[in-house]
Each structure stands twice: as C-alpha cells, then as structure tokens.
What does this fold into?
Amino acid sequence: MTTPIALTIAGSDSSGGAGIQADLKTFAALGVYGASVITALTAQNTSGVAGIHPVPADFVTAQIDAVFSDLAVKAVKIGMVAQLATVDAVVAGLTRWLPNHIVLDPVMVATSGDRLLAAEAVEALRTKLMPRAALVTPNLPEAAALLDEPVASSQAAIESQGRRLLSMGCRAVLIKGGHGQGAESIDYLFSGNGIVALAAPRIATQNTHGTGCSLSSAIAAGLARGEDLETAVRNAKVWISAAIAAADRLDVGHGHGPIHHFHKYY
It folds into this structure.
C-alpha cells in the first residue's frame, strides 16, 4: 500500500495552533503522512504575533529539495511565505519538482490581526504562485486584498470576486465565508465546472485560531489520498466544522484558542 504524503510549506506557530503545527496535526488526523518546509519562525500565541523571523530563501530551497528528492509527495499546501525572496524560492522549487496538486492559502493576516506577508510580496503571490495552484483558498478579507477591492458583503460581490480570482490563472478558488454574517458560514467553490456553495452552521466560539491553515491542509490531505477536488473540499469542510464545534473542549491560551484537530480521537 502506498502511503499518502502531503507537504506543507508555511510558517511555524510557536503556540501550536496555526501554521506548520496545525498543518501537520491536520494531516495526521486525516491519515496522511506530513512533511514540512518552514518559511518563517513566529513568536506567537493565542493573543497575537510578537515577532517574525524569516528563514533565508536558500534554506527554504534546501528543505524543498531534501523533501522532494526522497519522498513521493502527492499534494502540497502553501501557507505563510512571509517575503518576496521566499515566494521566488518556492516557485523555483515547484518548477523543479512539479507536484500534482498545490493548494495555496494566501496567508496575509493572522486571526489576531497581525500582518504575515510583506506588502511587496503580494504581487508575486498573485502572479507567480496563484497560476500554479490547483486551488486558492482566500477568506473574504484575503480575496479583497488580492483584488485591491473592498471586502465582499453580498453573494453577488463574492461571486464576482471569485470569478476574477479564477481568471488570474489558478484552476479553482474557494472563498471562505467564516468572516461573513448570518446563521450559516457559506464557502463558495469556483472552477471550470461553475460555482458550488458549501454551507455549514456558524459556530459561536472565539477558538478559531488556525482554521484557515487547517482547512487548506485538510483539502491537500484529501487530494493526497486520491480524492477529486470537489470531494476533497466537501470532506474538508465537514471535518473543519466538527473541529471548530469541538474547539471549546480544549482549554488552551487566553485569546483565540485552537480548533480541536483530534476531535474524533479524544
């Protein structure tokens, strides 16, 4: 039996709720072996980000080559890339190794509001990374930032932004509705097959740290297991909703606590 392997290229969260740590927990919870390329270290907890230490681009390259030269990576999730030089290193590595499935989570701002992507790197994210992605997974503020527009506040505006993001070269876009209003959190999947709306009850909890990282990783895990994109997105949505619903069973930190990645097991 071939072991499904997924790789996360992202920043480290010292409090364990987001970034590399959330990605590896997600892969493990979903039965996928996880490897990692760390792009930045953060001094971070549930209340905010105290500092960011980018990993030198040449060492990002060394990590990418070490993983791909040995492991049969089936899917890649890209999260925090921090700076322009890192974007270029990641693009070059993906060009060398050509993984089948790339899920790009355009991480720009932490749950706490702290900026995680240098302003000069945003254009490189748009023009260099997005066209390589099988799926891009922005939340509403990230979708707006990628398009230099106000945050969408209606279904029509979300659909308009989704179509324009899709035209930037990626194969599919998932605009996440967690920052929206209403009784349901609705994610919209845009692809060549049209638009699919995925609704789940909005859960009242402040413990949502790492939700975006974990959803994109759950989709990558599904792709690594051989699921088609829509199936992977649907299964990831069900899993992340359960992880958020179980978040208050954990007592971690004094701010936005983590979701419960292992809600099925304890």
Summary: The radius of gyration is 17 Å. Residues 49 and 82 are 13 Å apart (CA to CA). The chain has one domain: 5-249. The longest helix spans residues 229-245.
